Amino acid sequence: MNTMEEKLRSMTKRASRHGPRGTGPVASDWSAGSGSASGARGPAPATPSTSQAGGSTFNRPQETTGPTRRQSSRDSIDSTSQQAPPEHGELLFKVMLLGDSGVGKTCLLTRFRDGRFLSGNYITTVGIDFRNKVVVVDDTSIKLQIWDTAGQERFRSVTHAYYRDAHALLLLYDVTNKTSYDNIRAWLSEIREHANEDVVIMLLGNKSDCGTERVVKREDGERLAQEYKVPFMETSAKTGLNVELAFLAVARDLKARKSNDPDDTKFNVQDYVRQQSQRNSCFNSNCLTT
Predict the structure, then answer these.
(1) Global pTM?
(2) Sheet of strand 140-149: strand arrangement
(3) Is Glycosyltransferase given among the entry's keywords (predicted)?
């Protein structure tokens, strides 16, 4: 009898010594369901050794550290953008396209933004709409918010409400439509009345690719631009002639006005347009003959 009791005592001692070190009972505790008592006891220690040993311990660290990691990732992105040097920051300018209905304002915007031409029939702009595009000028990102306006008389009152917030105005006429050219003076009068005094104005003679249908000479556009002291160029939304140059010239002028650099403030958009047009004269002449 004593021998049996001694054997039982020795077996109990070995089991008690072996139990804490064994992986069997511990693993069964961690893998138990959340409704079991062993499952409730399992996560209590929450030590690195037990979190590596049990299968379901991985869920617990994930719940506590996961959101923290995602938050730190967003914080790092936000801090990077906030700490960017001002000269590399993104500037925002609002540009409006003005002119009679059918002069090609929407086509010009689509060519500049998407690099394609709206051929065939399309719906005339009603009221006002806008598109965004980011351009880079001297390592500075400039976001142009380009407002496409309706040219019909009944929408003029709507357009006037947006003049005051515009930084630049691109005024278009159709070289194949004499009436759209004659109405430029009326458009300029409205601009002087409703827009800011320091707004950038550029005159564009669009549809310059229509050689045989032209009724407004280039010299007429240049003379009108000199009268009102605004830069001028002819464009073609179909071929892309001077489309990008027009927007980049405006963006460069707006950047120069906002800059504190004396060299930038000396920028003259009329001289820039003239130089770039002369540099691309061969390309321009080829476009006009197509």
Answers:
(1) 0.64
(2) 128-137, 140-149, 91-98, 168-174, 200-206, 232-234
(3) no
